[in-house]
Design goal:
about 290 residues
Length: about 290
């Protein structure tokens, strides 16, 4: 799985990749049994393809800045570079949210890396909440900062954030539990590994019959309550076009536009109103994504 970016985009496990003002290609690399005795199933490759004037980063937002305020934490990861040697940094940002106090950033010393996976770590003592004002979407952000002004490839795996001043052995989470935690922020009707907007994907599509423009039958209860009322996007399961549903009148199947979405909640995708061009008493189907990221 590979994609190219020129601005911030979410990748594996809610890590946001940002090439700064350059460009990058993000790839999931799979291990082979001969690589390590007991590796994780895959790791992330950040290939900077266009040099940036600032530092490209991978960033993870931890909800509620109060959780770690006044605490000592250690960030660690296994990292390597594709050729030669260089340095990376960790940073921890206490972001007090939109309309809140100004963010407080701490940056580690330079951490040396080479072409072999090696464990690097840094410890931070975060400030307390005294005299701080909270705004919307406040969080603590962990950043993996990479070199500026260069073309390179950096591999990351086994990133861990933990309380205390010691980087302990990586404790991989249960996949099912981790998936549910991620679904608090992002969900989709597509199967795992299928991208939103893929074509000819009927598996998992939400469906009902066309019997008027208001589609109460398309409303779906989300399997995990989301952090906030999500932003919903709907897609035709055949063409992959956004803001469309597929209409199946029996012949001449077509995409039909969505006019509006109402009654969306933290537990529900809401009710669709579709274009009157749909054929009455015929099936319709669509996929959705629901986004409540910080």
């Amino acid at each position: 799985q590979t994609f190219s970016i020129t601005s911030a985009k979410y990748t594996a496990d809610r890590w946001s990749a940002n090439p700064d003002d350059g460009a990058a290609t993000i790839t999931r690399q799979d291990y082979t049994p001969a690589t390590e005795a007991s590796p994780p199933s895959s790791f992330l490759r950040f290939q900077q393809t266009g040099a940036a004037t600032g530092q490209p980063v991978l960033a993870q937002k931890i909800e509620d800045v109060r959780q770690l305020s006044g605490r000592e934490i250690t960030v660690s990861a296994d990292v390597r570079i594709g050729a030669g040697t260089d340095v990376v940094q960790f940073a921890v940002v206490q972001d007090f949210g939109q309309g809140g106090s100004g963010a407080v950033t701490q940056v580690s010393a330079d951490l040396d890396i080479d072409t072999n996976f090696g464990r690097v770590s840094s410890t931070f003592t975060l400030g307390n909440m005294a005299s701080k004002t909270l705004g919307a979407r406040h969080h603590t952000r962990v950043e993996l900062r990479m070199p500026s002004g260069k073309i390179y490839s950096v591999d990351w795996k086994d990133v861990q954030v933990e309380l205390g001043n010691v980087a302990t052995t990586v404790d991989l989470p249960d996949f099912g539990l981790e998936l549910m935690r991620c679904m608090r922020y992002y969900q989709k009707s597509y199967d795992p590994g299928v991208y939103a907007g893929d074509t000819n994907v009927l598996n998992g599509a939400i469906s009902t019959h066309e019997s008027g423009s208001v589609k109460e039958g398309m409303q779906t209860i989300l399997p995990v309550p989301m952090r906030a009322i999500p932003t919903l996007f709907w897609y035709s399961p055949i063409s992959g076009v956004q803001s469309q549903v597929r209409n199946y009148p029996g012949s001449g199947d077509v995409d039909v536009s969505i006019i509006s979405v109402a009654r969306t909640s933290q537990r529900s995708t809401g009710i669709l109103t579709i274009d009157a061009a749909a054929v009455l008493d015929s099936p319709i189907a669509a996929h959705y994504t629901a986004n409540a990221e910080l």
